[in-house]
Fold these 2 entries.
Entry 1:
Amino acid sequence: MTSAGTMTITLAGTARVEAAAGLRLSLSGLDVVLIVIYFAFVLGIGLALRRVIATSTDFFLSGRSLPAWVTGIAYISANLGAIEILGMSASGAQYGISIVHYYWIGAVPAMVFLGVVMMPFYYGSRVRSVPEYLLRRYDRKTHLVNAIIFVLASVLIAGVNLYALSAVLEALLGIPLAVAIVVSALFVLSYIMLGGLSSAIYNEVMQFFVILAGLIPVVIIAMKLTGGIGGLFAKLSTSGPYFTSAWTGTGLGGHSPIGDWVSLVFGLSFCLSFGYWTTNFAEVQRAMSAKDDNAARLTPIIAAFPKALIPLGIVIPGMAAVLLIPGLGEGGGLEYNYAIPALMNKYLPTGVLGVALTGLLAAFMAGMAANVSSFNAVWTYDIWQDYIRPGRPDSYYLRVGRVTTVVGVFIGILTAFIAAGYTNIANYLQTLFSFFNVPIFLAFIVGMLWRKAGRGSGFWGMVVGALVAFGTWLLYQAHVLSFRSDLAETQWGAIFGFVAGFVAMLIATLFDKPKPLSELNGLVVGLQQRDVQTAAPVRWYRSPVVLGFGALLLCALLYLYIAVV
Amino acid sequence: MADKVELTPEEARNWRLAKLFDLRSFIGALFVVFGILVTIPGLAASKAMIDKAAGINLALWIGLIMLIMGVLFLAWVLLRPPPPVTAEEAEASRRAREEFGTQGPPGH
């Protein structure tokens, strides 16, 4: 479900989650009890929250009442699904430390940018979804294209998450794939039906702490057995020049498969990660549910701190697994995707293993729930209310939201069965993202920063950008264009799409009168609307700018640390 | 904000439950339970358990950390209890209930 995670699974080659012969977890009674208790809590939260869901805003945006620490953790957790945890540790095991680029330049700067620059436009204009912003900034066709793409992408990705979850259940616990798909889907369905977005967010926050309690012991053991990060790098120095150094081989003529610095900075960071983190409604919805303007701005910035530290819990154990799990990634051995579950199984004692597995299962379900809860908001508000049945009372849309949740989950189940037939889920997901995410980000950034961008220009930017990115990919597949790796292709395709889409927006603006300023209130730079109480100066520890700078500084220090260790 | 809100007994009960089930109480309760259940085998850890975890009594350490975390979350709820129902909240839910009739939203 993440731009980063999906691409790295591609990078990790064949991401077949199904083949995990030889890894069946040995759970004790206590481990099972812990899992059952956790899921009882999840349903309990849904039941408790059901009492306070009275309006559609409660259901879709948690009544805009949540504090920043809750929305911030939910923001990071919505991304911490199956594909992220298994895929990024797999990439760590296969490609080494350079995978940290996906966090320190491929995520954190985008999150800081969202909080500092973009969030006032989203929150202050009181839009209820990301596509709704495009409706007010551009026109109906821009809106409709974005809403439809989002709705399609999110049910498909919910399905892929569901498939990944079920494949892991099958591999680790021996539950048949079809049963696992249906049971996990019904579980997610029941808690979102009951508590709406609040239920999803509450679970994301609980899950975050549980997954930490599962990952930290793995890191402790991996560090003890390999002699710390320095010892780990020294022991892995035989694995090639790029494995333990993040920047080696990233020059323009270099050979590091991660890409070159131009495509990393402009393609991965500016186009792909800004596109994902700042316009993906599954993420932005969490910030929109914050209680005030400042809490909304702090949401992605609070999330940036754990995001900067997560590679220590995912990429580093993945690398350590190369030493600790014999045969990992070799023919006949365990697949790279199972690096972390294999470490857990080998080293965690009874009880701790139960907590760790609970964290994994919860993370996988949260990933799917995030897709479903953003899908139903966009479907209900942006498609049903705007184009199909406008002007009904709020209670009607609340009901539509609940029905949509059911339908969305069932489409997700179908998609999961389709994904089970694919050998490479990654391509399937990555293709979606590289084609649509970047041009959508283009329409946002130009729309926010350039008042004169014409009414129809957003539509043309999105269409041309997506087509050019798609064309680049086709030419690469046909061996007309060549890049150093699939990953580098994605980054360059994003850059080409962005530039072409931008030119299309400029041309479209020439033929189009700009929108009058009266219609752009709250939507463009210089016309932001801020809540009165939050326009007051805040203390430094609540200042998005200060904290955002702190997050960037943390990334710089982490780069420095892995370079000298 | 500080307006006195008049609630029917049923509304009052719903809101009390909703506010009691603050996210922090859920996390606190979960981690206290997890902490206790994981610490117990840690206290009686066999040599095999410790050897498996590279010589560290992980169950004891992780169990105690979770227990402390749970207690901290519960203490946080007690020290900073959730704010009382505001007039707007009560009004919004009442309006919605009237729209749905006496039955409440579907599923109730």
Entry 2:
Amino acid sequence: MTDWTLEGLAAAIRAGKISPVEATQACLARIERLDGDLRAFITVDHAGALETARRLEAESRRSAWRGPLHGVPLAFKDLCFIRGLPTSCGTRTAEYFLAEQDCTVVARLAAAGAVTLGKLNMTELAMGPFGDNAHHGHAQNPWRAGHCTGGSSSGSAVAVAAGLALGAVGSDTGGSIRLPAAACGIVGLKPTYGRVSRAGAMPLSWSNDHVGPMARTVRDCALLLQGMAGPDPLDATSSREPVPDYMAALGRNVAGLRVGVAENFFFQGVHAEMEAAVRKAADVIARLGARVVELHVPDPQTMSDVTNIVSRSEASTIHARLLRERPHEIQPVVRSRLELGMQIPAYDYLQALRLRARLTRAFIALVFAEVDVLVAPVIPEPAPPLAHATEGPAHELVARQGRFSRLTRPFNGLGLPALSVPCGFSSAGLPLAFQIVGRPFDEPTVLRVGDAYQQATDWHTRRPPLD
Amino acid sequence: MDESRPQQAEVAALLGVIERMAADLALAEEPARFIAALEAGRPPAGGEAGGG
């Protein structure tokens, strides 16, 4: 069962082929067997998950279906508040943040019938693209032990790739959904800014945080997004834009769609195998009938720098108390990034926010006059060895982190929907991936292109060598 | 090694973009126009992009 898609499991539960308790027990058994090595979870809610599953099973016996995810086991990045469970946000203190209520995304997915398996490992304070965590153990890449998982939603990607959970929720401030999705060979969607409520998810940057789904297939991500998206009175930045039917957009062909391959910036210094796989993915989409063109996009590095100024300033403000009162508890590289944020003057922070508005307007006008979606690499190289992420002085690590997340960060500042999709494996057996970026609130087109690609390829059906 | 020196250099490098780009920002430009840009940039009639 843990090899099924989320959509397949939901259908099987509806058809009475498997019960919510059986599905939950299968995931818990797999977690028990594999997570000692993988380190995907910080907290496993064994009792709570089974209690919820039993309740859902009783409801299903009388055909009282909560929603499309009835009985499906999911797990959440450990920055999502869940009543009754500790939230560490990847810090040393396991119960660092105490929640009186569930975060909006957890509440919405539970209302759709999901079972919560537990809370997932992450980079400390969601600051770092490699997935290392000295406090809770470095999450391990299921495809190759000793290699990075990508971060910061490391546990979310590992849990899905290893079949410990059929879907997961992550957050993305500079690439933290897409980077681990790419490194672990699963699908991850950073929705449009404001599309999914951030309420009850521990912030890193109010202006750049995005909460989104992670799963093995684009269809499963669409199903999860359907349950998560929409306005929320608890999040002032959530959008009132109507939520479309994401599943309805899938399965339609992509003939005539204009797809741009961003030729400047995104392939500079990118590993040869990664570049080849991304260009081959664009060729597959072209063979499906899309018009693929090369495109020069407005300088992404400028937007990346602007995004960085905003994120650093806001992160330092959010975690000022931790930095002031318990600096010894924070890993040196994370502390270094927080300290840097303290040195950014209000003048520069506000100018960055103003620049962001102008750059976003220009990018949308120029790029989406020419194409409907962009494709580009997600990570510049296959997942590097973990030692790469943890060795050297803090300033070198910060620079290395910046290089690894340079292809994703611009789209956080731009607020555009971006979907990471697996597109092959390196000669060392590590996943390769590309991202599909669309107009604001055009998740239907982004998902449609990703789904069409997955229907034409089989990378998403491969499984890591764990069994 | 003194960690503050590389950090100062990184701050300076990071803020260079403001020096280069912010001088000609229009007086009317303000942070909230980012949300306006997203709303204005959504696909026509709230639907998805063409093709297929």
